[in-house]
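User: Structure please.
Assistant: Input sequence and predicted structure:
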Amino acid sequence: MDFIDLTPIALQHTPLGTRQQLPKLHDRQLDWPRVAALIRDNADVISQLEAGLAEDWLNTHGTIWDDQLGYHRYPNDNREFDGAVFWAASTWATPAILVTFHNESTQAFSCFAAGCDPDFHYLGSLGEAD
């Protein structure tokens, strides 16, 4: 998997967040197998990968992987907040990733599959998708 296989996307901010129920436009969830393949095939050039919803990035993103810790813990568990909590599915927004490269440049990409699974399919310490 290479970055050329992904579609760049602009990250936005919804000032009031996503608390109000918006009309259902689609069922999209983060494409975990694609994320796993991207990290596995490009770990030598990535310093950090975050996930969230492109249309409300500031309220929904969190870190999945970095070159210091590898995969972060399960995003939705009961431990203290550490930036690893994020939204991975939406009926109105686009699941996306933000890649920070070793040269400190960043690029956001849409990264979703059809579905409405609200569970976070954590990739695990070996980077294998559930």
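DSSP finds two helices and nine strands in the chain.
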